[in-house]
Design brief:
- The chain is built from two helices and eight strands; from the N terminus they run βαββββαβββ.
- With 123 residues, the protein is of the alpha/beta class.
- It has one domain: 2,3-Dihydroxybiphenyl 1,2-Dioxygenase, domain 1 (Roll).
- The strands form two sheets. The protein has a four-stranded mixed β-sheet, covered by helices on one side. The protein has a four-stranded mixed β-sheet with strand order 5-8-7-6, covered by helices on one side.
- Strand 3 and strand 4 form a beta hairpin.
- The protein is globular, with a radius of gyration of 14 Å.
- The two termini are 21 Å apart.
- The model has no long low-confidence stretch (mean pLDDT 96).
């Protein structure tokens, strides 16, 4: 990753926290750090939070965050978990040849309307 971490604000903090806990679990991404005083949550792997959000105004325009998947099956599992967690479909799992022939992604809107994606770049 070329960015150490990224952060955004969300209006529906508790809903988003529960959504991302469930949606990112199939990718091996967990809630690594929470700072209740600031209503902030950091998600990542191996103890390092890379994706942060905190309670605030909705982002305008909405954010788009793509999370790495290790297989097409993980993308499918992310999509299923995200929709079951209350996310809204914004692009079912599939190949997006517009990006490249092996780009396999799925898109779901979180409770604040941000576009969360899981993507696998392999064959």
């Amino acid at each position: 990753m070329i960015i150490d971490h990224i952060g955004m604000s969300v209006e529906k903090y508790d809903e988003c926290k529960e959504f991302y806990k469930k949606a990112l679990a199939p990718l091996g991404i967990t809630l690594v750090k929470e700072i209740p005083k600031y209503f902030a949550s950091g998600f990542g792997k191996n103890g390092k939070p890379e994706f942060w959000f905190g309670k605030g105004e909705k982002n305008t325009p909405r954010m788009h965050v793509a999370f790495k998947a290790e297989s097409r099956e993980q993308v499918d599992a992310f999509y299923k978990a995200a929709v079951e967690a209350g996310g809204k479909d914004n692009g079912k799992p599939g190949v997006r040849e517009i990006y490249h022939p092996n780009y396999y992604g799925a898109f779901v809107l979180d409770p604040d309307g941000n576009n969360a994606e899981a993507v696998f770049h392999g064959a």
